[in-house]
Amino acid sequence: MFDLQAIIKEFSDCDCGIKHETALKDVVIGSGVTKDTGEILKRNGFEKNLLLVADKNTLKAADGVLTALKDFKVRLKIYDNLREATVEQVEVIKELISDNDGVISVGTGSLNDICRKASKDAQKPLCIFATAASMDGFASYGAPLTDGNFKATYDAKSPEVIIADTKILAKAPAELKSAGFGDMIGKYVGLIDWQVSALITGEYYCEKVANLTRQATDKIMALADRITAEDEDSASAVLEALLLTGLGMSFVKNSRPASGTEHIVSHFWECKKLLEGKLSDFHGKKVGVATLLIMKEYGELYKKTSVKAHKEQVDWQDVYEHYGALKGEVVKLNTPDTITDRINPKDIEDNWGKIREIIASVPPYETLYDAMKKAGCATTCEEIAVSKQLEQEGLKYHPYMRRRMSLKRLSNMID
What we know:
Strand 6 and strand 7 form a beta hairpin. This protein has two domains: 4-172, Rossmann fold, CATH 3.40.50; 256-411, no CATH class. By secondary structure, the protein is α/β, with parallel strands linked by helices. It has 20 helices and eight strands.
């Protein structure tokens, strides 16, 4: 059972020195709880006028939610099939929110992202009614949004309330369930990158929050062969694990506990495809494939018992050419200095043993691959319509679209 208050209490006095807080007031996960949606909102202070945002697929999946809101005055914003969250859509939702007291986002992924950003900007309460355990951003304070084909993470709000009916989660398409698994196993890469950055750059790191992510991800790994089953217990367990990583992001107010290089590679692929007028596959599918690619490389780095390091050498003209129309955003992120400028190569050499220990602290590529196959996940770029050329471009050029240190970025400084 997901006990939000117990988790908040556990993290109320953390040794890291940072006060861990979350806007979340209530999380309700259970069989048949759709009918209780209205009462849940009332007890959490939601007023009468609501904006409900969904698409045709998620509203159909959440059958009964409108009936449950019979005591509210509900305005609807229904998309056909929202697959890409953009800043333009945020503005649309913000305008609609102005005449309402709160928002309920019915669905997952992009729908939640535009609502979390718009609700923050408009300072309105938000409830997320989850229809699939397909991603971990339900409780996050960041929203990945596209602006002019460049994808970045914007400050957003964590919802006050999250509701999930396990009957609905269990009936979600198998592809979405597998995507949720792919999103979760990417946390192992994120944990490596966060620890390595803390070791080499002194970036803030909280062991307790990292362990929250690690325990949630380990739990999902153990469920690999049950992920796609139409089983309420499994669906509930997956969603709870996703929420735990979201809470971790809430506690530190950034995405470090839940994403690393694998997410940035996925975003690079997405941006490049958008430049061609093409939509990408589901977020979790891309993240899962990127995780395997990165873990294979980290496994090779682990084999090095010692290294020689040097200052990062970047052919910026080459980088800008590969970003094309997105060059301007990359320039902003890497001037007047880059994230590696202050790193002493000797610190990499001296700490290489510790870096190897960090790599070895998560399951290796082979274990993740086997688990993903059991969970019905995509495991190759071909399965997510990413060409070999785009795959290699993503692995080489992704670091420059984020100002964030990772082991992958650090590897560019190793002979």
